[in-house]
Amino acid sequence: MLDAAVLAVRFLQYAGAALLFGVPLFFVYALPAGSPGPRGSRAMVGGAAAVLAVGSAAAIAVQASVFAGWLTGESLGAVVTYMAFGKAALVRTVAALFALGLLLALPRGRWRWSAVAAAGAVAAASLGWMGHGAASEGPLAGVHLAADVLHVLAACAWLGALAAFVLLARGEAGRAQLHPALRTFSALGPALIALLVLSGLANTWVLIGPDHIADLVRSAYGRVLLAKLVLFAAMLALAAANRYRHTPAVAEGAPLGPVRRSLAWEAALGLAVLALVAWLGTLAPPGFGL
Ligand code: HEM
Question: Can you tell me whether residue 15 is helix, strand or coil?
Answer without folding.
Answer: helix
